[in-house]
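pls design
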């Protein structure tokens, strides 16, 4: 450090010029990348905000016009085309599926649940899969339902999955398997769920046992 302090200002200036000549380009590039990254991040955040706001408006329109199938269908197409990657598209599919199911439009209900089941939001996707499996069982589309129930799901849904497997086996008249499934579901359930499961389990006593 002492030797450096003895250098003249001219020598220091020459050394600085030499260092800048050698390293200046990389320094400027680094600063440019940093600034560019900051602006890029801000633009990305603004883009996500715009997407969310746009999707929210269309989702609100779908909710307000639930009794008007034509308006709902038009809004759904716009939502899926322009904001398909947002959670609102999946939520709208779930909501529309419920409306269709209540109106007896089972095929339309299933179609919307399949869309929701592919959501990038895990919670929405799993809820949609459970509802889809239940709808397929009720529609006697048992092979499709079994395919969905065979997929890996979080432990939180295990009781529901097991119950639906019981419903599936019941529909197939495989009553022994249904009984086992309900028993397992009862062990992992609580409250009113147990009462419903027990009713299903008791109903099996009136059915002819299968050799399964």
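designed seq:
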């Amino acid at each position: 450090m002492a030797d450096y302090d003895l250098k003249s200002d001219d020598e220091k200036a020459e050394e600085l010029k030499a260092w800048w000549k050698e390293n200046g380009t990389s320094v400027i590039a680094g600063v440019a990348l940093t600034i560019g990254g900051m602006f890029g991040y801000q633009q990305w955040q603004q883009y996500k905000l715009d997407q969310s706001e746009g999707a929210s408006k269309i989702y609100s329109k779908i909710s307000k016009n639930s009794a008007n199938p034509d308006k709902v269908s038009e809004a759904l197409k716009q939502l899926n085309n322009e904001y398909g990657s947002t959670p609102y598209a999946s939520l709208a599919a779930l909501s529309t599926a419920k409306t269709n199911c209540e109106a007896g439009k089972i095929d339309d209900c299933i179609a919307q649940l399949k869309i929701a089941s592919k959501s990038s939001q895990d919670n929405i996707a799993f809820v949609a899969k459970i509802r889809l499996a239940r709808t397929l069982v009720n529609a006697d589309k048992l092979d499709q339902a079994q395919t969905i129930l065979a997929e890996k799901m979080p432990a939180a849904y295990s009781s529901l999955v097991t119950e639906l497997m019981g419903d599936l086996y019941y529909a197939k008249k495989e009553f022994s398997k249904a009984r086992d499934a309900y028993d397992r579901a009862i062990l992992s359930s609580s409250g009113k769920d147990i009462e419903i499961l027990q009713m299903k389990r008791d109903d099996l006593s009136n059915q002819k046992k299968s050799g399964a």
